[in-house]
Amino acid sequence: MKIVYCFYSFLKNINVNFEEINNFLSFRIYLFLALILNSFSWFLVYLIKSHINHNLVILHYNIDFGFDLIGEVNQLYFFPILSLILILVNLFLVLFFSFLGTRIFLFHLFGMISSVVNFFFLFYLVLIYLINFS
After folding, report:
1. What is the per-residue pLDDT across 99-113, written as a single tens digit (0 to 9) for each?
2. What is the value of pTM for the model shown?
C-alpha cells in the first residue's frame, strides 16, 4: 500500500511541476521553437530521401579532401531522432529539477540547449541537401 501511495505522490508532483512549467512562457516558446525545428529536420530528411534515386548520399564534404563521408540515406534519420530525444531528455530534466530554487535558470538553460542543438542539426541537414543537389 505504501508503494502505491509513493507512486501516486510522485505522479502528483510531476503533474504539479508540469503545470508550473506550462505557466512559464519562455520555456513554452523554447519548446515550441525546438519542436518546429525538429519537424523541419524530419521534413528535410524526407525531402532528401524522396529526391535520391540511389541508396548512397554524401554526408560530409571537406574543402581539402572533397567528399570524405558517404553513407546510406537511412543514416540521415539519426539527426532528427537524436534531436527529439534531446528535447524529451531536457523536458524530463526540467521536470525532475524543477523543485530546486534555480528553476528559472534551468528553464532557460534546457530550453535554449534544445533550440540551439535543433537549429544546428537542421543547418547540417540543409548543408547535406545543398551538397547532394547542387
Report:
1. 665 567 777 888 888
2. 0.79
Q: Which residues contact 121 (CB under 8 A, 6 or more apart)?
A: 37, 41, 79, 80, 82, 83
Q: What is the structure's pLDDT at 30?
A: 86
- 9, with CB counted inside 10 A (0-12, 13-18, 19+), is exposed
- Nearest partner of 61 among 134, 127, 133, judged by Cα: 127
Q: Print the domain residue range for 106.
A: 2-133
Helix H segments across the chain?
2-23, 25-51, 78-97, 103-133
Helix axes 103-133, 25-51, angle to 10 degrees: 20
Overall number of domains in the chain: 1
